[in-house]
Structure formats: C-alpha cells, structure tokens
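During the no-cost extension, the postdoctoral fellow (Dr. R.K.) reprocessed legacy sequence entries with the updated structure-token encoder. One reprocessed record is reproduced below for audit purposes.
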Amino acid sequence: MPRTANTQHAPVLRGLGKGGTRNTSKLVPALLTWFAHNARDLPWRRTRDPYGIWVSEIMLQQTQVKTVMPYWDRWMRELPTIASLAKASPAKIHKLWEGLGYYTRVRNLQKAAQFIEQSHGGKFPEKFDDVLALSGIGRYTTGAICSIAFNQPTPILDGNVIRVLTRVFGIKENPREKSANAHLWNLAEQLVIHASRFTFHTTPCSHLNQSLMELGALICTPRDPKCDACPISKHCFALKHNRVNEFPNLDKRPAATARRFAAFVIENRGKFLVRQRPASVVNAHLWEFPNIELNGSPTNASAAARELFGFIPKEMQPLCTIKHSITRYRITVEAFRAEAPASDTNRLKAELQTRWLSLAELHKLSFPSAHKKILKSLALNL
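Re-encoded structure tokens follow.
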C-alpha cells in the first residue's frame, strides 16, 4: 500500500476552467490505492522487461486490450527478444501482426529493434531521448515505456488520460489545441513527479501512469462513466458541476464515407490468384485477392473484372460480402469466385507481384482483415 510522501512542497495543479486548484497530494494516493486493488491482470503487467512493454504499447495503439492480449502472447513466444525481432523475416512479422491493422507499426517495430542491436548493443535504452529517437515511438509511448519499465517520472497523455484530466480539472478548451494540449502534458507531468516521491511504493511512477489509463478505460469512459466508483470523484470539476458529458471538448468526427470494392477469387487447376500490395500503399507488403473499387466506374462485378483482368472470368459466382471500417471509411467488399481461362493464365502470372498458390500456401501468407475473411469463406466452400 503506497504511503504519502512529504507534500510540503507538492506542486499545485491549476485547471483552465472553474475547477480551481487541486493539490496532487489528494489525487496521487487515491489513484495509487485504487490501481493496487482494481488493476486488470494483463500479461504485459507481469513483466518489467522493456521489450515486452514496448511491444504491448505499440500493439495497443488504435487497438483494444481484449484484441491485443492473444497477439502479445503469441508474439512473445515467437519473438521473445529484441535480437529475434531484428533478425525475423518480413513475412514472419507480418504474419504475427495479421489482423491488428496499421501495419506500419510492425515495420517500425522491427526497424527500431535493428537500430537497438546496432547502436545500443541489443539492450533497450533507458534514457528518454534515446527511446524517443526509435522508429514509431512518440512522446506518449516513450513516457509509458520509461515509467512502466524503468519507473521514471515521465508523463503520458493518451485518449483515456485526456478524458480523465479534462473532467477532473475542468479544462474546457479542445485538448488537441496547442495551449490546452501543453497544459494537459504539464498536469500529467506534475502528477507523476509527485508520485515519484512515494518512496515506500515499489513502482509509483509506473502505477500512477497506469492508474490514469486504467481509470479512463474502466471508469471514466466516454459514455455512461461510472462516477460512483471513481476514486477521485470528489475532486472532479465535471461531476461537481454536472457537466461530465461536456468533457473532453473534442471536434465532431467527420461523417463516415462509404466505399465498395469487388474482389475476385480466381481459380486455375486448384490454385488461386493473389497479389502483394506495393510498399507505398496502405497494408503494404500484405497479400490480397485482386480487387477494384466500384464507386463510380466500374459499377458492377462484370465490368470490374473486365477492367481488372481484360476479360470476364468463367462461371463467376458470389462468394461472400465483407463489411468493415478503417478510420472514417465504411467499406463493403463483395467477393466473387470464378475460373481463369487457360489461355489467360500466363498473362496473369506475369503481372507484378502476382502468384498462383494452393489453399495451404495461402494460409501461410499475411492478408488484410477483409481478405483474410474472404480466404476463410473460400476454405469453407471448397
């Protein structure tokens, strides 16, 4: 149980709204005590290994905890060290990441591992600036790693923490604006610095930062927050003034854009046509079934097939329809199964990054989530 450090010179935090001042001595012990009794048992919380913590933080970007857990377990079994990640083939890291999306993250992860091998002797750096210099790591991730792995008083500021701090301190400005964002970073820093003075707590900086994230994830949620269960509710400006739903003051999201694609599962003698996405596009280096967008021209599957292949495949039949979302896009993929005329096989094989593969070979490749679902549907219908 954490004990309160000497708070004679504890910093006083000032919100931008009418919330007034709140002494960190009231917030920090309440957060640490709550976290000690309510923290979820997550696999990366059972280690102080900076590599494992780093991997978890990268996976958790734009991805929910429940989704990440099995991926993290499998990753740590397959690539348990920085050296093993640095040496892994691109195909292996993409396959381990398959389904998590935002694949630039995994390529930056390997790039950073290779840099650590070359410039840090294979040991994960402990200095803030050295961590921040790694590929794919920004200020938040650096703060999380340094505080959780090394118990350093480095602040963090993600969506969950922003929500907690804007409500507690009554920060009415948009947290994405420069001045408000800087103020939030300052609040987060003062909290973790004050926590570092709790000398009788084993890892106060780690637990303080994690308590803020955990509070935002479990209690101080975007909708229907559980204020009755909040350990710092009596210090919360938003609750006191019955304005919880007004914070944080974020811009409204743009309306979702609908997009339609036709994808083609072309078969010839028990093998199927797939292509690899180029390095310059979304989902780079992953494999997919040939596809084309239908919004505008072409407007139907037959026209799309003719535009894509130069001919309409034989016996083209619907296979499945996949719906998914990527950022602000609501995407529908209509997949069709067909055969390729023998006369066209050689021309198709000559297309850049295109291959004919068996079903077993396809299962070894990395596909974007929509095309992985198409592959699953294909396997069920063979």
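The chain has two domains: 12-246, 257-381. Residues 348 and 354 are 7 Å apart (CA to CA). The remaining legacy entries will be reprocessed before the final report is submitted.
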